[in-house]
Amino acid sequence: MSEGRGLFRRRSKGWETENVRTITGALIVFIGMLAVVALAVVAVSLLGAGNKDAVVAITTSALGIISAVVSGYLGIKATANTAEKANEKTKQATDAQTRAELTEESHNALVAAIEEELPEDQANAVKAAALTRKSKPDAPGRPTQGG
Q1: Which pTM value belongs to this model?
Q2: Could you give the CA distance from residue 96 to residue 77 in angstroms, rounded to a whole number?
């Protein structure tokens, strides 16, 4: 269903949201860094080479701003990725719990039906056979689940 490679994969209905966020965020950080570099270059060229202390201060400030922006972007990106994975795991756990509850309800309904419809000795024999089958899932001569 997806076309392309890497960040530029596209689903049939449009670009994946996470890829758009990644590209947009990186682009904004890159433009911000270019603006800081341009501002530093203009300031240094206006001051000239004679004022070395000011040139060092401007360059140091520009590098500090760039490192802060990049670190901030990477930190936010890492946090967002972690939150997304946590949400995915929570959904998987909820789905597994729901399936287990439905299975238990089906089991209880089946046991209740067996106890209602069959005499006690036959119902106990059916339940014992089911427990034996459960402890030996690949017993020969018996159909597999769904077969």
Answers
A1: 0.51
A2: 29
